[in-house]
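Notes from the 1:1 (GR / supervisor)

We went over the backlog. Supervisor wanted to see one worked example end to end before approving the batch request, so GR pasted a single chain during the call. The sequence is below; no edits were made to it. Supervisor asked that the structure be written out right there so they could see what the output format looks like.
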Amino acid sequence: KTTTTKTTTGEVYHYVSNDGKTKFEAIYDADKGTAAVKNVTTGKTYDMKNVPSGSGSKYQDKDGNFFWTHQGGFDFGKGDKTEISGKEVK
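Structure output shown during the call:
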């Protein structure tokens, strides 16, 4: 399923936190190097840009929030602090 946000168009990927309480949806646009990451639980959407990372794919917004995916897992947080970790749901 392809969806468009104000910055990003693409397939929707689904993620759930390890405790099952928080769900995220992410749409990646490789051509633009952007991601629209929505915290489905709170309804907040973060418009992020790709940033360098040691491994995986890391996206960050202008406020320092990040969404980092690696080998089927994810971390969401701000600055250098991870607030939520989990995995992709297929």
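Supervisor's comment: The chain has a mean pLDDT of 92.
Batch request approved.
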